[in-house]
From TrEMBL:
It comes from the Bacteria. Residues 1-26 form the signal peptide. This is GH18 domain-containing protein. The keyword Hydrolase applies. Belongs to the glycosyl hydrolase 18 family. It comes from Candidatus Yonathbacteria bacterium RIFOXYD1_FULL_52_36. SMART domains: Glyco_18. SUPFAM superfamilies: (Trans)glycosidases, PGBD-like. Keywords: Glycosidase, Hydrolase, Signal.
Amino acid sequence: MNYHIFRKTVAVFLIALFAVPATMSAQTSTAIEVSGWIPYWRSEKGVESVVPQLGSFTEINPFMYTVKLDGTLNQAGKITDAEWVTLKSAAKAQGVRFVPTVMWSNSDAIDEVLKDPVQRQKHIQSIASEVFRYNYDGIDIDYEGKYARTRPHFSLFLKELNDAIGYNKWVMCTIEARTPLDARYSSTESIPTDIEYANDFKEISTYCDRVRFMTYDQGRIDLKLNAAKGQSEPYIPVADTEWVEKAIRLAMQEIPKEKIMIGVATYGYEHDMFPSTTGSGKMAYSQLWAFNPGYATDIATKLGIAPVRGNSGELILTFPASKSPEPVIPLPNATRVLSWSDAEAIKQKADLAARLGVRGISIFKIDGGQDPNLWGVLAQYKGSEPRVATKPISLVLAQTDTASPVTPAAPVASVKVPTKNFEMGALGEDVRTLQKYLNAKGYQVAKTGAGSPGNETTKFGAATKAALIKFQTANKITPAKGYFGPVTRAKMQAQ
């Protein structure tokens, strides 16, 4: 998500000039899911702005965790801080999913940790511990800049993470958008024949409940749109809806549309535009920085000029770089170009989500600096059904082919009981012993295959946890959360 670039403070908005048309708020739109990320570096402002608007959200994602070199988690934003406590409580009260994000962009560290089975399990345990300790509704995985060689290891990580927490916790995945090759290259002949990707869409869709595409930071990647739209006006958008549609349609070829979320931005970029030094006669762009909408509208007021709606669907503002109020030495003869995503640009993506039939939109970012007209837009897409934050357990049970408890055909004289304490994600012979006990006592781990009677394994996955919870529930052990400890052990030994 390139989250490091968004720390520039911005504050002023032109309310009348850029207000969303009144007809927009009166329109009734198709209900879609809406999620939003709140960055830890502006957590107080973000929480303050989003709490009154939670009724328009299905899920909220605190940008909270980073990853250490050894694969363990670091709370960049403390869950015990007052604003996060407030947000978590408000989300729970309104049935909004509270799903923190784990951010990781160290390509080498990601590869090293995920390819090593021991380190990978340690990483998964670190995530699972936080999810269950703080009773999150799930976790959002945002691992960016991965190598192509990391692809199979990342897929295996998602599978094992789903095994560890997917039984009743949401596993959300945030990944880069993929531009169709015929839009990235000037001709069919110029497309490399050995292209490899870092993300396996099919594997990701198998293990993730939602797949959020970062369909922003488009820039100049789409050569076709550059040529078609960049002749009459500056064209270097955060996200043209036409480009977004291309990327999402490509993803829909491998990922069920009901899992897809379209990422939408609430910010913009400032560039210097100048004649290319290659002699091509085309314009070149040099990116300066990212900004929130209030920064651009403030400049518009100071210079006495009005932004216009560009052919990308975003607002753009252009003026001679020499007139910029920013204390930056401009390039000679450069034109300053600001392009940003306001409420109308976001509405275009929400309408696209409804038209394509995908799950919804994911907003990056909510930090108090977004277009204030955003809330009126989101209110149009609210569903009428009650929201439920907790992931239904039955969905996972059906996928793991776990049966309800059955009465064993005959009493079992002696069945061993595990001697150690452990939980989801554990490996070893004690897990096999637990599975044998559960199968023997009628709480089948699985009907057939791994975990079934005679095919017990050494891995404590979702099916084992489901069977253990059934045993605990039947024996009135509380809390019945699938943790094997002294209370459960004593109950088994007494039978």
